[in-house]
Amino acid sequence: MSFLTYLINGISLGSIYAIIALGYTMVYGIARMLNFAHGDIIMVGAFAVFTAVSTLGMPPFIGLIAAIAICTALGLTIEFVAYRPLRGATSLAVLITAIGVSYLLQNLALLIFGSNTRQFTSIVTLPNLKLAGGKMTVSSVTIVTIVCCIVIMIALTSFINHTKTGQAMLAVSEDRGAATLMGINVNRTIAVTFAIGSALAAVAGALLCSMYPSLTPYTGSMPGIKAFTAAVFGGIGSIPGALIGGLILGVVENLSKAYISSQLSDAIVFSLLIIILLVRPTGILGKKIQEKV
Amino acid sequence: MKKLISVGLAAAMAFSLTACGGGSTSETTAAATTAAAAEAAKDDAAEATAEGGVLKIGVIGPYTGAAAEYGLGVRNAAELAANEINAAGGIGDGIMIELNAQDDEHDPQKSVNAYNTLKDWGAQMIIGSVTSAPCIAVAAETKADNMFQITPSGSAVECVANDNAFRVCFADPDQGRVAAEYIGSHELAQKVGIIYDSSTDYSTGIREAFVNEAANQNFEIVAEEAFTADTATDFSVQIDKMREAGAELVFLPFYYTEASIVLKQAADREYAPIFFGVDGMDGILGVENFDTSLAEGVMLLTPFSATDENSKDFTDAYVAAYGSTPNQFAADAYDAVYAIKAAVEKAGVTPDMSVSDICEAMKTAMTEITIDGLTGSGMTWNAAGEPNKEPKAAMIVDGAYVMQ
Amino acid sequence: MEKKKERMRCAVTYAMVILFYIIAEGLIMTGHISSLMKGLLVPVCYYAILAVSLNLTVGILGELSLGHAGFMCIGAFSGAFFTQCTENAIPSVGLRFFLALVIGSALAGLFGLLIGIPVLRLKGDYLAIVTLAFGEIIKNLINVLYVGMDSAGFHFSTKDTTSLKLAEGGKVIIKGAQGITGTPRAATFTVGIILLLITLVIVLNLIYSRAGRAIMAIRDNRIAAESIGIDVTKFKLLAFSISAALAGTAGVLYGHSLSTLAATSKTFGYNMSIMILVYVVLGGLGNIRGSLISAAILTVLPELLRGFEDYRMLIYSLVLILLMLFNSSPKAVEFRGMLIERIRRAKKPAKEET
C-alpha cells in the first residue's frame, strides 16, 4: 500500500517536471536554445498567482488566468529583447544571455517581493481522496496535477498536429532555412513557442507551489534544472519525450528516496540519467542526429 | 581584421590591468566612500552629535541568494539596534555606532571579500557572518587581523574556535542535546522520527547530537530520513516514512522555510504527530500567508518569541521599519549589538583605539558582561565565545507561542 | 610566418600575466592596494585557471561542459584532505601544499579520463547535461561523506561523525555537509600566478602543437578529421582530462585559500560551473587571453558594484546581458565592424601625414 502512495506522489511530481520540461523542450526544438531562464518564469507565475489570490483576494481561477497572461507577456518580452537580437549568434552566447536573464528575474523578484518565504495558498480547493477504506489518502492537488498534465499534453499535441501555427512550428524545428523559403515567418513562430512555453510555466508554477507551498525568489531554479534534466532524459525536442522523461524522473526520485537513500536521491537520479544517455545517446525518444560532412 | 581584434584585445587588456591593479584602488575607495556616505546620511544625526567619536561596525551576511532571508533579518535588526542606541545618546560617553553591511551571498569566498571591503572602510569590529561556512572563513581573517567578531547566528562549533570570536545563538550540538533531554524528561513520545537536511551543517550537527543523546533517554528513534537543499521542495516520502514507522513525534532540526512545507504536506496527508523543532523553526508564524492552524501544537525550543511580552517593543519597531515580522536571526543580531554596547562600556573602549587593542579589551569584557536580551535574560559569555543561556520550549497554541 | 605570429601571441599572453603580477606586487609593496583587491588576487588566479581550462574543453575541443566545478571539487577536497591528514607526517606547509597540488590535479585528471571515456561519445547538449549530472553527483556524495583518521587508519561513514567510531585522539577530516575546515591557507598570490603560468604553458603549447591542431580539426569537422586518420577518441580524451586536471589544480588552490571547504551549489554546484562558462563565452571561445581578461573582470566587477548596495546583483545581471548582446549579436558585431573600419579610415590619412 505504501508503495502505491510513493508511486502516485512520484507521478504527480513527475507531472510537474513534465509540464516544465515541455517549456524547455519546445523552445529547444524550435529555437535551438537552452532557455535557462525558464525556471524563473515559473517563479514569476507563482508570484503572480500569489499576489492575485492572497493579496488582492481574487478567486484562484482568475489568478491563474492573470498569471498566464503575465508570464506570456514576460516570455514574449524576454524573447524580443534578449534572444531575438542574438539569432544567428552561437548557441552558447544565447545560453549565457539566458543565464543573465535568469539572474535578472531572481534579483528583480528579490527587490520587489523581498526575501521572505511565503506560504502559497493552494489553488485547488477540492477535498482529499480516500482509498482502500481510508487507509490511503491521496491529496487533491496530486490528482489535479496529474490530470492537468495529461490535458496539456493532449491539447499541445493536437495543436501542433492540427493547426497551421503548429505545423509551422514543426517545420521550423525541422529546417529553419527551408521553413523560411516556404513563407513561414520564423520570428513569429519562435515568439509563439515562447508564449506557449511561458504560459505553461505559469501553470507549472501554480501547481508546483500548490503542492510544495513555499514561495521565494529562488523557488523556480531547482525544479527548472530538474525539468531540464527530464527533457534531456526523454529526448530534448520531443513532446512525448518530455512527458516520459518527467514521469521517470519524478518516480525514480520518489522511489529512491523511499527505498534506497533520502540523502542520495539526487545522485541516484543523475546516475540513472548518465546511464540512459550512454545507452541511448539522444534520450529515450530523441531523434537520431544525422551527421553530414 | 585579425590585427584589429588584437588591438581591441590589447585595449581591453590595458583596461583590465588598470581595473585589477592600480586604478581599482581609487575606484573601490570611491565605492566604499559612497557607501559610507549613504550610511552616514542615514545616521547624520549621529554624525553631528558624535562627541565620543564613531565606532565603525561591519555587518556581513547574505542579502541576495537563497539565504537572503536570514541575512536581511540580521542587517535590519542590527540597524534598528544601532539607531536606537544612537538616538539614546550612543554607547557610554556618546560613542556613536556607524554600521556598514556587506553582502556575502552565503559564499565563503564572497564573505572574505565582504570582510576586506569592510576593512578598507575602516571597520573596527564585525557582526557576522550570518551563516556557518562563510563565518568560519571570515573567522580565519579576523583572527589574522585580531579584530573582534561576534556572529549572531553562525552555529557550527568552528565558528568561534578562535578567541576573538563570540556568538549569540546556540552551538549546534547543544541544541540537539537539549532537545533530546527535553523530549525524554517530559515523556512526550516513545517513538521518535527525524527528518533532517543532510546538506547543511546546521541540521546535521543538531541531528547528530540529538541521536547521541537519545541513547540515554527513554525514547526510541524509529525512523530517520534526510533531504538536501536540492530536494527541499517535496517531503511526501519522508512524511510517509514517518507515518509508516509509527513515529509519535517528529523532530525537525532545520529552518522554518522547509518546515512550513513539511507541516503543510503532513496536513494534506492527514498525519498529525507532535512536531518538534529547534531555533530554526522560529519564524514559522511570520511566514507570509501561513495558515497558522497548520502549526497548531507544534513544539519548538527557542530563546526568542516575536509575540513574547519582552520582545514586543522590538517586534513593533521592526514591523514598522521593515514591514515583516522579525525572525530569530534578527533577534540574535539585535542582541549582538547590545552585547557590543555592554562590552564596550565595560572595557572603556574608545573608537580611537587600534583594532587590535579594541579586540583585546572586548575579549575580556565579553566574559564579564550580563545582558537581558531578546534571546535570553541574564546572558553571559565564556572565554570560548559561547553564550550561556537556556533554550525555552514553546508550544504553538492559537497562532502564538505559549512557553512551557 | 604563421609560427612566428603564434609565438608572438603566446608571448603577449605570458607578458600580460607577468605584468599583472609585477604591478600588483608593486602596489602591495608600496601599500597602494586596498584589502579588498589584495584579497581578490588569489581568487582571480584560480578563476583564471578555471576559465582557461574550461576554454580548452569548450573553445578548443568544442564540447559544452556544465560540470567543470565537479572536477574543481575533486581537486579541492582531495588536496585539502591530503594536507590535513599528513599534518604530522610532513611538517612543512609548503611541501604539503605542493604535494596536495600534484595529488588534487592528478585525481581530477583521472576522473576526467574515467568520465571522458564513456561520455565523450555523446554530442553537444547531451554531453552538457551529463557533465552537469556528474557535477551534481560529486556534490551530493561529498555532502554525505564523513572521513576520520586515528592511529588505526582511516574510517569512513555516510551517516555522521559518531558512526566513524574513532579511537581516542582521532580526528574527523571530512565532516559531511560541513566539509573540511581549518586547512592552512597556503595559497598565496605568487603561487597562484605560478600555477596560472604553468596552466598557460600547458594549454598554449597543446593548442599550437600537432595534437592541438588535431583537436581543433575534430571540433571543426569530426568526420573529416576521422577520415584523414586522426584518432578522435584519443585526442578528445587528452583535451578533456587535461582540462579536468587543471580544474583540479584551481580547486586545490581554492581549498587552500579559505579556512572552510563545503560543497554547496554555490561553491561547487552547477552555479559555479555556469559562472566559469560565462567567463569563457564572454572572453571568446578558444581565445585564451580573452578568458584571462574576462575571468579577472567578472571576478572584480561584483565587488566594485558594492557601492550600489541592494541593486548590486541586479546591475551585474544587466551588465552580463548587455555584454552578451554587444559581443555576440550579429547586428552589434556588424555595427562594431563598421565603427572599427571608420576609425581605421580616419587614422590612415593621419598616419600618412606624420
What do these coordinates show?
- The complex is a heterotrimer of chains A (about 290), B (about 400) and C (about 350).
- Chain A has helices spanning about 1-30, 40-55, 60-85, 90-115, 140-160, 165-175, 175-180, 185-210, 220-235, 240-260, 265-280; strands at about 120, 130, 135-140, 215.
- The longest helix of chain A has 30 residues, at about 1-30.
- In chain A, helix 1 (about 1-30) runs parallel beside helix 5, helix 1 (about 1-30) crosses helix 9 and helix 2 (about 40-55) crosses helix 8.
- A two-stranded antiparallel sheet of chain A has the order 1-4.
- Chain A starts with a helix and ends in a 14-residue tail after the last helix.
- Helix content of chain A is about 70%, strand content about 5%.
- Chain A is globular and about 60 Å long.
- Chain A is built from eleven helices and four strands.
- In chain A, strand 2 and strand 3 form a beta hairpin.
- Chain B is an alpha/beta fold.
- In chain B, strand 6 (about 190-195), helix 8 and strand 7 (about 220-225) form a beta-alpha-beta unit.
- The model of chain B is unreliable at about 1-50 (pLDDT under 50).
- In chain B, helix 2 crosses helix 5, helix 4 crosses helix 12 (about 330-345) and helix 5 (about 110-120) packs across helix 6.
- Chain B folds into two domains: about 40-170 and about 315-390, Rossmann fold (3-Layer(aba) Sandwich); about 175-300, Rossmann fold, CATH 3.40.50.2300.
- Chain B is built from 13 helices and 15 strands.
- Chain C has one domain (about 45-145, about 185-355): ABC transporter involved in vitamin B12 uptake, BtuC.
- Helix content of chain C is about 70%, strand content about 5%.
- In chain C, a hairpin with a 2-residue loop joins strand 1 and strand 2 (about 155).
- The longest helix of chain C has 29 residues, at about 1-30.
- Chain C is mostly helical and about 350 residues long.
- Chain C contains 13 helices and five strands.
- The mean pLDDT of chain C is about 90.
- In chain C, the strands form two sheets. Chain C has a three-stranded antiparallel β-sheet with strand order 2-1-3, with helices on one face. A two-stranded antiparallel sheet of chain C has the order 4-5.
